[in-house]
Amino acid sequence: MALNIVVCVKNTPTTTNVSVDSCTGKIKSQGLLYAMNPYDEYAVEEAVRLKERVPGSTATALTVGPDSSESVVRDAVSRGCDGGVAVVGPEFDGDNSYAASFALAAAIKKLSAQSPVHLVLFGKNTNDGNSGMVGAETAAWLDWPSIVSVKKIDSIDDKSAVVWRMMEGGVDVLKVALPACLSTVKEINEPRLPSLKGKMAAKKAAIPKWRASDLNLKAEELGALAPALVSKCSAPPSRPAGMKVEGASSAEKAKKLVDILIERKLI
Amino acid sequence: MSQANSGILVVGLVQRGKLASSAYELLTAGRALADTLKEPLVAVVLGAKPADYAKDLIERGADKAFVIEHPSLENFNDELHTKAVAELVEKEKFGKVLIAASVAGKSLAGRLAVRLRAGLAADASEVYQNGTGLKARRMQFSGNIISEVQFASAVQIATVQPMTYPRSERQPGRSGETVAVAFDPGPARIEFVSFQAEETSEVDLGAAERIVSGGRGLGNADGFKIVRDLAHAIGAAIGASRAVVDSGWIPYRHQVGLTGRTVRPKLYVACGISGQIQHLAGMSSSGTIVAINTDPECPMMQLASVAVVGDVNELLPLITAEIKARRGTAAAA
């Protein structure tokens, strides 16, 4: 009844304070530092907690990206994953969730052929592309069920899991047959920092690198798998300059603010 | 050459008997596209008993409405809702699909895009026409970058951020055809167990026209009382910064920002929130931003439409009292 868990992670810029190259209309990537997408830390933590909950389980980190992405898999190992795989190549350098999810699905199929995967975990979204689509898309390529916005994995065995989904007006409790893909939200746990033991393990870990050809993916097919493309990036329009409410006392400021809100028909 | 896909489909989810009102916003976005492209604007409602809403959506601008009625669609089921919408799009050959960027809508859109081999723009803040196709604007990198997405696929999907478009008005007497669609869910791998509603007195953040939001400047968890008081006085939803959610002052469902909810109210009152970039990403598209903070230099005060320098703990009760006093005078007059 042990579980084989895969957790998908992405190497993303450590800052969202990026700018656009006015000539190319693309984001300036030069000089940016990369680390694990912060929202993926919750998914990694949950994988490690499930491993602790269900004896004999394994947690495998999986990423897709350019050659440099291997480091994010090591980071996941330092946080408690048993190992991981990096699917790398220049064709994966981009923020096309459609092609990324296709490659993830192909890698999960390959892992499953070695030892059946029960559960794949994802973060809420990435801090670069912000789409939050990859979990549902990967599940769709695999033809597995998926649930997004998961705030709790209640009971679980190798056949099914009962999970809590955070909706706008409340919480859905759902029972999902495994294998399945779950996208987590921050409320699911509080991630621990990498341990010293974990860091040592990460240093020593052998991280297999799979190329597109190892997954029988062809670059031109992946290219064709971009039914939506970012044609142009730009900085957001700046908001009109604001006004300051002045007043000799707090009471005066409060009165003036209420005047403005009424005048603008906001209350 | 096969006939090109045509028609703009707006997806309306009816859960536990209620249509998500974001469908009315999608009708506004869809109507503009339909008029420009000279294509029909079509709605679909899905649920256990969604039929009443078909007429509602026609009165609000849809030319035709499809009804997919099945007990399995009472609560959102990622697989079954996808199957139902996908089969309709395939049969009717719609070219564009607009879905609300809600929890359910986003999951539906992701699975639908793969199944239909369709391009997808997630969390669009604007959708418009590009030749005969669709173009969408969306934010990346916590709102630091606006990207334009264009499509190469026959079917083009966008999830649209709540509150981006106004709700379409009802035009009584407006008529259109309603078509019932047979749906066979097949075996389901996700089983609904139960739903636990939040306190019903709360206004949902995503659909709120006014939000009062609190941060570290409130001092402690008890400080949220004055935020609630103002929110109740003006019928606003209650928001919060990440810092105070992490400190346990208020539950996560109130968190505004990239890690929480993206909101777009007409009025956003930021009380003692300095404005971390992730927070700003979730609310900087709000209509009017009022910031109350002791630090005039903090990012939120710089972003604000109206900035009030001062201690929220002193100012908020005065503002709430002032609003109540004016209401009292207005009622007496």
Fraction of residues in helix of chain A:
25-40%
Provide the succession of SSEs of chain B: EEHEHEHEHEEEEEEEHEHEHEHEH
Return the domain count of chain A.
2
How confident is the prediction overall: mean pLDDT of chain B? 93
Largest interface: A-B, 82 and 92 residues
- Which parts of chain A are unreliable, with pLDDT below 50 for 5 consecutive residues or more? none
Please report the total strand number of chain B as a whole number. Answer: 16
Determine the mean pLDDT of chain A. 92
The tally of strands of chain A reads 13
Low-confidence stretches of chain B: none
The CATH superfamily of the largest domain in chain A turns out to be HUPs
Shape of chain A: globular
User: What is the highest CATH level, the class of the largest domain in chain A?
Assistant: Alpha Beta
Alpha carbon gap, first and last residue of chain A = 58 Å
Count the helices of chain B. How many? 9
List SSEs of chain A in N-to-C order. Answer: EEEHEHEHEHEEEEHEHEEH
Structure, described:
The complex is a heterodimer of chains A (267) and B (333). Chain A is of the alpha/beta class. Chain A folds into two domains: 4-223, HUPs (Rossmann fold, 3-Layer(aba) Sandwich), CATH 3.40.50.620; 242-267, no CATH class. In chain A, 30% of the residues lie in helices and 27% in strands. Chain A is built from seven helices and 13 strands. In chain A, the strands form two sheets. A nine-stranded mixed beta sheet of chain A has the order 9-8-7-10-6-1-4-5-11, sandwiched between helices. In chain A, strand 8 (160-166) and strand 9 (170-177) form a beta hairpin. Chain A is globular and about 70 Å long. The termini of chain A are far apart. The mean pLDDT of chain A is 92. Chain B is an alpha/beta fold. In chain B, 31% of the residues lie in helices and 29% in strands. Chain B is built from nine helices and 16 strands. In chain B, the strands form two sheets. In chain B, strands 1, 2, 3, 4, 5, 6, 7, 8, 9 and 10 form a ten-stranded mixed beta sheet that branches. A five-stranded parallel beta sheet of chain B has the order 13-12-14-15-16. In chain B, helix 3 crosses helix 4 (103-115) and helix 5 runs parallel beside helix 9. Chain B starts with 7 loop residues before the first strand and ends with a helix. At the A-B interface, helix 3, helix 4, strand 7, strand 8 and strand 9 of A face helix 3, helix 4, strand 6, strand 7 and strand 8 of B. Strand 12 (228-234) of chain A pairs antiparallel with strand 8 of chain B, so a sheet runs across the interface.
